[in-house]
Structure formats: C-alpha cells, structure tokens
Specification:
This protein is of the alpha/beta class. It is built from 13 helices and nine strands. It has two domains: about 200 residues, D-Maltodextrin-Binding Protein, domain 2 (3-Layer(aba) Sandwich); about 120 residues, D-Maltodextrin-Binding Protein, domain 2. The longest helix has 26 residues. The protein starts with a helix and ends with a helix.
Length: about 350
C-alpha cells in the first residue's frame, strides 16, 4: 500500500467535501419536502457506459455502497452496463427513463464534452445535470520499460533532432486520450503518429508490450501496466501519490506549457430531474458528495489506491470543467481530424 494514507484522508475530510460547490450537509437533509425525504422509493439504477471490469466500472463499485448508506437505502444500486458509441448508448438510455431521479449515469467528464461536439445532432449538454465528481485521474506519459528514454526531455530531444516520427497508442480516434496526445504533440513541436485501439486497456497494453513508443494514459486506470512501463511526466501540478508512478509534473520539466490533463469521473442525471424535481436533485447531489466522506468509501478507496485522487467536486465545478475542456477541443480538433487520414 502506498504511504501517506492518513495525511491524504485528513486533507480529504477537512477540505474537499465541505467545499464542493458550496453544498451544505448536516441538518439540511432533514429539512427537505416530504417527497424528497421519501426518495428513493425504489432501487436506483446506475448506467455505466463501458464494459464491466474497466476503470469506470471499478470506480463506480467504490462509490455506490457509500452512496447507498447516505441515501438510507436497503437495496444496493443496480449496475446496468450500456457500452458503445462513445457513451451515446448510455446517454440515450438515460433519456428514456422516467426522469424521477432513480436512474444515474456515471462517466468520465471528457466523454460528455466529446458527445456534445461530435454528436451534436444526438446529444447536447442541456440534456444532463451533473451531481458531482468523486475522483480525478490525471494523465501520465508512459513508455515501455525497455525504452531508451529515461526522461521526457530525452524523448523530446531525440524526436526533434532526428526528425523521427514517434508512435502513440490511444483508446480510440477522437477520444480524450487522442486529444491529450495531440495537445502534447502540437505544443512540443514533434511528430507523433496516433495509433488507435479498441479501448484504453488495449492502448496501455500496446505501450507495455513495446508496440508503440508512448501512451498518454490516466494515472490510476493505467496502474495495471505499472510493472511493464514507466512514466516520464504527469500532466498535473503535482504527483497525487507517493511511490506509484514516481514522475515529475510535466510543467516542471517541459520546455513548453501544458494544461492539466485530467479526467474527472462523475455522476449525472437527466436535466429533467433537476427541472421537474429540484428537491430530488438536491438530495441526490448532497448525498452523493456526503458519501465521499464515509468510512465505507475511504476504506474501499484505500484498497484500490484511489484515495489520492478522491476530491469532491460539485455541479458547478463540473460545469466549469466541461466548458474549459470544450474550449481545448475547439483549439485542437482540426489537428485531431487530420490524424484520421493516417489511421
């Protein structure tokens, strides 16, 4: 187990939950209208837009038992996996629900941003209302263990001086991983050919097996290839753990600036729930963030080494992230679309 568990827990308990989007706890849950206090009236269904066993599925299973406690439910959440179409299948399933708060969708936030850009005819941001985020997974730049590059500067120097085209694996074309790779490539001024795979696990296995030169992958989600790869830098302002990837923040070692490239994992409901049943939406949002304060969640998070990334974001912070991420996509989308011709 990684060190600094108690420090991380204290920091989390004292700061992130109370600060999350100004959401108040304590007696507020006891003063809601009767309809909200009686909610939920049945089992809550969780839509998961990816297959069982992936990073999203694993993280959902950490949160829902604690959320069940704060909602006072006797029955566990029912997980309904609806993978495919860049999470659009799950979003469409959400649209077909009763909009009474008994269906929640868990997803990395960048996928919601992407849908609004690439599937604008089928999805818009005003269809959904964020409840919050429970952890944020920053990207790391991975290379195979036998890579000649010991530092990110060595990689950049070689690519610039030799003019060689590097290869980078991504989970799929026009994905969050593709976007992160293109931002790095364009700002570094080097040649990188993007190689798409059928999912994040396959992309990480490709770099672990030495089939590509590098891969930008989520820090925690990539822990399954920890022994087969090494990280050259982390695209965040700090290393969230001690001893996992053991790499420097990108902007401490790069000769150019990079944005924070992280993937907040969050929960949302249909916007109609917030519109038609605001008291239910408020109860869901409050109990969701309160769940992250429980021992149930912290114990499960520590078991999976996810506690370093556990920070409660409320609805407004999630909305801000989406707006900033879409602005980044607008800037780099043309370069990403040019990649499609070479795939």
């Amino acid at each position: 187990m990684i060190d600094n568990v108690n420090t991380s827990r204290r920091r989390f308990l004292q700061g992130s939950v109370a600060a999350a989007a100004g959401i108040a706890f304590g007696g507020s849950l006891l003063t809601k209208p009767a309809f909200a206090n009686e909610f939920p009236s049945g089992r809550i269904e969780v839509l998961v837009p990816f297959s069982p066993g992936g990073g999203t599925d694993r993280s959902v299973r950490l949160v829902t038992p604690a959320w069940q406690e704060t909602l006072g439910m006797t029955e566990p959440f029912r997980l309904n996996h609806q993978p495919g179409a860049g999470t659009l299948i799950a979003q469409n399933a959400l649209r077909r629900t009763a909009h009474d708060g008994h269906t929640v969708l868990f997803t990395p936030a960048p996928h919601v941003a992407w849908l609004s850009v690439l599937q604008a005819d089928d999805f818009s941001l005003d269809q959904v209302a964020w409840l919050g985020s429970y952890f944020q997974d920053p990207n790391v730049l991975l290379v195979p263990n036998d890579s000649p590059y010991q530092t990110v500067q060595e990689l950049l120097d070689d690519a610039r001086e030799s003019g060689r085209t590097l290869t980078a694996s991504v989970s799929s074309p026009m994905s969050a991983a593709h976007a992160a790779t293109v931002v790095f490539r364009e700002r570094a001024g080097i040649d990188i050919r993007v190689v798409p795979f059928a999912g994040g696990a396959e992309a990480r296995n490709a770099v672990a097996g030495g089939h590509v030169d590098l891969c930008l992958a989520p820090y925690w989600s990539a822990s399954n290839v920890l022994e087969l790869t090494r990280a050259l830098c982390i695209f965040a302002d700090r290393d969230p753990s001690t001893g996992m990837w053991d790499a420097p923040p990108a902007n401490d070692v790069l000769d150019f600036e990079m944005p924070d490239l992280q993937e907040p994992y969050g929960a949302l409901v249909s916007a109609q729930v917030k519109q038609d049943h605001p008291e239910v939406f408020e109860r869901l949002a409050e109990t969701f963030v309160a769940a992250l304060e429980t021992e149930t969640f912290h114990n499960a998070a520590e078991e999976q080494d996810i506690h370093f990334f556990a920070e409660a974001w409320g609805p407004e912070r999630m909305k801000q992230f989406i707006e900033e991420y879409i602005a980044l996509l607008d800037e780099y989308r043309p370069a990403m679309e040019r990649d499609l011709d070479e795939m």
